[in-house]
Amino acid sequence: MVYEVYLRSFADSNGDGIGDIGGLRARLPYLRDLGVDALWITPWYPSPMADGGYDVRDYCDIDPCFGTLADADALIAEAHELGLRLIIDLVPNHTSEQHPWFTAALAAGPGAPERDRYFFRDGRAGGAEPPNDWISAFGGSAWSRCSGPDGEPEQWYLHTFAPQQPDLDWADPGVQADFDAILRFWLDRGVDGLRVDAAPAMAKTPGLPDAGHAPGALFESTSWVDNPHWDVEAVHDVLRRWRAIGDEYDGERIFVTEAVVNGPERLSRYVRPDEMHTTFNFDYLRSAWDAGSLRTVIDATLTALAPVGAPATWVLSSHDETRHVTRFGRADTAAATMGFDVAAGSADLALGLRRARAATLLTLALPGGAYLYQGEELGLPEVEDLPEDALQDPTWERSGHAARGRDGCRVPLPWSGQKPPFGFTAEGVRPWLPQPGDWAGLTVEVQQRDPDSALSLYRSALRLRRSLAALHEAPLTWLRSEPEVLAFARGRSFTCVANLGARPVALPVAGRVVLTSGPCPGHLPPDTAAWVVAGDPPDDLPHGVPAPVQRTAGSLGG
Ligand code: TEU
Ligand code: CA
After folding, report:
1. Which of 57, 130, 199, 359 could join 46 in a cystine, given CB atoms 3.0 to 4.6 angstroms apart?
2. How far is the CA of 423 from the centre of ligand 2 (A)?
3. Rounded to an integer, what distance in angstroms lies between the CA atom of residue 208 and that of residue 299?
4. Are residues 128 and 189 in the same domain?
5. Residues at Cβ < 5 Å from ligand 2 ion
């Protein structure tokens, strides 16, 4: 299980209100105790932070607000000592507008070779209109116009994300060679893997033809077919090149791509044997809380990955998505894109939490790897009422204030205490995003004492997941169940049952219940999941599995 650390919001060690490497180092034992195998850390490079660090000014250093290279080295060493592997975030599609490559390209002027690293083009309509109809993931055109030294408007440059994030042209040999060196820089320092940001953006159809986007179209890449700026075949040349580099290193160095593409078959292409090891499964994240949809996604995922032999991944939340406690508490439980779900309506958080707990047991029982986003283990909801003047995500401005963006899932974690900053930073310091005043009951301090807390559930589930051999290797087999129930076996000894319907159901399998996501008074209530093992429970039943008989080792449904 890989734990996503959104560094700015994890823990602050120096009292500036921004999470940092020191804060993470201090909390590594917490992550080990949670049962994490590896950490993925969001970008920590020097950055003007126009997009939370996904706008990189220097790929081979650490931003002073996060620490130093020496801190990074210490983190890698300490994580390894605790048996935790470390995956860093590589942002190859675009740099910061302040990267020396881009400032040099701007200064060199139209036609200069410095501009070949990026996409500079003349505008249409005598220069006044963007070169084509491509759109930005944060809203609006994907092109911005630059001005010359005299202030006169000149060429346009491409940015799939914010204007502060100009796209690199990966057909350029210099770009390719420089990133080879960047990969080696970090692999040499001992990182165990790289998460490849926005991988489908890394190739464009030559000639940059129009995509045919309708006016006002959103960046809905899951529905695009033959799009000239997303999921273009040449992306895979880059991935193969990197895989070859990773394979030169000792130990297991892994790559995981972030690729929001059109369905499992397209996704499976990112994990062919000579490409990446794994890729995030956004179809699972986007699925509604609905047995039929989830079952379809699970089957389609496993079917598409089988021929390429890559393990599946399962993910419910990330720093880009509405937290799933909130999502599952809404009338429409499917995920929207990057905070473009402002009209989604209010959420019943008690319902959302019940479903989120059930979803955790479902997710952790599926074959393959799971990703957990920080705070998910605390059952944190999306913070939907951040004051407008606190919002920092470029989506907010780029959408003309139509979408609040992703800040609501990035609020700093509550560790301890009764009021903000809840141990995230020094007492009296304002975290970079304000925390809700009513999170005292959600802190790590409170939850680790409560056997019924979300944190205790995650610890128990992760502990069991390690100890139950069936959850490591055995394939998934669906069991006969009511349509609104998901029931599957892993091998002969383990079953997961989740009731997504509105009525209680009898547990459709015999065996001993080793963990449930909520109270199970003789049956499986709505929005509840259970893990059942054949025969005796394993000797090392997780500590943290609470005493109430109906929740553990009781036999459900007779
Ligand atoms: O996200 C970008 C990305 O590829 C997807 O999130 C996709 O654009 C979206 O779901 C629409 O289909 C990554 C980072 O995770 C995000 O935080 C950054 O803002 C972005 O890249 C730019 O680097
Ligand atoms: Ca700090």
Report:
1. 57
2. 13
3. 36
4. no
5. 12, 14, 16, 18, 20
